[in-house]
Model the fold of this input.
Amino acid sequence: MSPPSEGLSWLIRIPEVFAARSGEILKGLDAVPLKKLGSDYHLVRLGNPEVFQTSEWAPLIGWNLPVHHAWPCLPQKMEGFVEKAAQAIFRKFGGAAPQALLTGPLQTGAVHPYYKHLATNLRGRTLQLFPPMPVREPEEQDPEAPTLFCLVGKEGLFCGLQSPRDANGFYPGGTKFISQDAETTISRAGAKIAEALHYIRLHRPAPPAGSRWLELGASPGGMSSELLARGYRVTAVDRAAMDPRLKGREGLEVIRADVDSYRPAGSECFDALLCDMNGDARASLRQVVRLAAHLEEGAPVVFTLKGAGAESPEELIALRRAASAYATASGLSPVACTHLTYNRSELTLFFERVRGDVS
Done:
């Protein structure tokens, strides 16, 4: 577990898509703003740090960190910043025995190369001071064990101990950045499922290679392509055509039909289900629940809750609350809910098939 964090300031990342409503989100989290940092970070005081991560507002923030050590400064103008910062981090956290030390720039999106390199150099020097840590790569971390996260930017250095699960990501600032090549990427939706497969490991193992996914509303195939690239098999259902580049891809079965008319064979089973359908979220979720009867016990469900019609954070939260209640009553167990980097005004919900009476 992470150390007590009462009385500390916190770094909270509010995704750019919600930036205009950041005041409402901070109020909903019972957070008092202290300072805006980087591109979408907020330094705040929390009214109740022990419960804010379970708040209904929590899925609207991308990442969070209690600030156990801060050094407000301008690193680019400071001689010997890396050495001074590394020594200060060791003095503060040398006896804490974190599982890993991870650093990143206090920016998202187009990161300034200076701070990207500075974060890398700071990590390398600081690791030389600490005893060997058991974990070197972000996704090898135990989601429940404390990690020392450090973010650096033009506002200074901010460090804290927190488990990846509580922070809401294995990486400093969130989940892994998914690079997309404009010439080879079928659709930006592919990055959403790629990121979701990183994120789900905070809460449960991702499906192993060879697992069979049922994808609803698959056209043009961005998500299908990402799943196939990871060794999965995909049954893709959509009345619209798939991208021609997917024609003949091994492991892909394409069903040209409306999702609401699709009926798998009675004995047909899948290892996971994915739904990123446009339109009314409640109608999409009804199809997910119906087809969850064809999932293996414990199979994960990844569902994009579209925020169409939700004009405020409160309305999106209410939509999420209703969706989770309906899914739970229908035999799906909620696992997690978050805003992924490539989500727009929408949330990604994760469920598991937990019993045989899904209806």
In short: Residues 275 and 288 are 7 Å apart (CA to CA). The two ends are 38 Å apart (CA to CA). The mean pLDDT is 92.
